[in-house]
Structure formats: structure tokens, C-alpha cells
Amino acid sequence: MWKFLLPFAAFVALVVLFAFGLNPNRDIHALPSPLIGKPAPEFALSNVIDPSTIVSNAALKGQVYVVNVWGTWCAECRVEHEALLAISQQHVVPIIGIDWSVDHGLDKREKAKQWLERLGNPYSQVAFDKEGRTAIDFGVYAAPETFLVDRQGNVIFKHISGMTQEVWEKEFLPRIAAAGKGGT
Amino acid sequence: MSRGSHARLLALALAAALAGFGGACAETPAADLDDHSQLQNPELQVRFEHIAKELRCLQCQNESIADSNADLARDLRRQVREMLVAGKSDDAIFSFMTDRYGEFVRFAPPLSPKTALIWGAPFFMLLLGAAIIYRVVRQRSRMSLDE
Fold it and tell me: Cys-Cys crosslink for B57: which of B12, B73, B108, B114, Cβ 3.0 to 4.6 Å?
């Protein structure tokens, strides 16, 4: 009896393992964020468009908002830009951009500004993370990454890699609706 | 000079060259990969090197932040250095990293219910193998006795 059951059990176990492990829809580089359910890291950075002003998420408490971490050096960010522009046209929630500057040069702010002037600006505000510290606080390891923050200021979702209309409709809109959209 | 002493001299020169080359190799990484020089306090430098080797560079996933040239690894090295100089403990630095990047950022995650499978699997496999060998050997010795 055991002689037949054991190989069969092993076979079933392997099938289950492969069904999870070889799933083509699974991104093997995507990691679960420890930030989910925790307060969004606070930041107060200078504005890319107008360096004399500060972009801070403390001012956004009580609202649902999106944080999009991008960089002018990042090709995938260029790809997702059209989608972000289209999404921003819907005016669902504010989209805060964080320009993740990896080589810490002040001239990179100008580069980010030019990028937005040339391609259009989907962000309600854009922060200049000159030293990459806010990116570290958010646990960003591969731009672009997009976070959804609820009215209590907690991160409720994180999307790694480019934003698309499909991801927005499937992952973000339902969560925004559940979170009560924002300041009433 | 005899042939033997020539050979000995050559061997010595070779050994010296190799030793010099090896020494140079061992020195380069920390200084070469980084924009910053070594930490002034040698004790902190030792701790820095230990921590940097223990942290995964998430941009390249199989390299430590000590080995990686990625921008993020460089920024994380800066972070570790700053925390060391500020007098933070190794544990505080590791939890700073895992709070942001998750357990995956550590090459050797601490033993916890979640990681018990990772740590336990090799021992389980070893026991399983031993049990199988035990059974096979016993069966065979019984067979040979029966003959």
C-alpha cells in the first residue's frame, strides 16, 4: 500500500510546487513590502518645479493619495509616463511624484524639470529626493514603484514596475474606493 | 652559481610577486568601489564590512551591498556608515533595513517561525537521507543473512 501511495503523494506535492513556482504571471523579483499596513514614511523635500517650496506628505493627512517614485535615469519610468498622464486626467486622487536622484547631483533637478516640461506633468506635486533617502525610507529598490496611502496615512498597496491602465483599474481603483477616496 | 640556486631564486621572486599581487587584491574592494574612504575608527570599519556583507543589494539580488556597484548599494553603504558613526548598534542597523526592505535584505535571516523552514530543511533532509540509508542497509543485510 505505502509503496504506491508514497510516490503518488510525492508527485502531487511536486505538481503543487510547480504550479506556484512556474506560474508565468509571478514576478520572481517582486518582494512583499514590509510597509503595507504601516504609516507611510514622512518626507519634506524641495519641489522639483519650484525649489523654494517644500513637498511634504504631512500636509496630505486625511486624504487618499498615490506616491510614485521615478527617476530620469529609469527607462521603465519613461514607459509608464503615458499611463500616469492618462490617470492624472481622471483626477481621482493626488499623485505625488518623488524624483529619486541616484547620483546626488543638484543638476538632476533641472533634468527632472525638463522631463516634465517636455513630456507633461502627471503629478500634483513632485519632490526632489536628491540623496535618495526618502527612496530608502520607502524601501524602494527598483524604480518605478507606486504606493497607495489611505486617509490614516498608512500604506495600503505597493506596485513595483511600470504603472499601466490595467494595473490602475484592477489594483488601485478598487482600493481607493474602499478607502473612501479622500477629504469630503 | 649552480642550476639549483637559480631555480630557487626564481621561485622566491615568483612567490614575492604573487604575495604582492594578492595583497593588492585584498586591499582594493572597500576603497575602490566607494566614493568615501574607510571609516576613521578601525573598529567601526570592521563592523561596517561585516554588516555590508550581510545585506543584500536588492537591485542585483545575489550580491551584497559590499560587493555591488549599484547606486542603491552605494546609498545603503552610506546609510550603514552614518548609523555606525552615530553610535547605532548592529541590531539597530539590521532592523532599519528589514523595516524597509523586509527579511529578504539579509543573507542570513534570523531564526523565527517564518524562517524555520529555511533553517530546518537541510537538517530535515539529512535525517531523511540517514533514515533511507538505514532502511536500505538493514534490508540488504537481512537479505544476505537469509541466503
Answer: B73
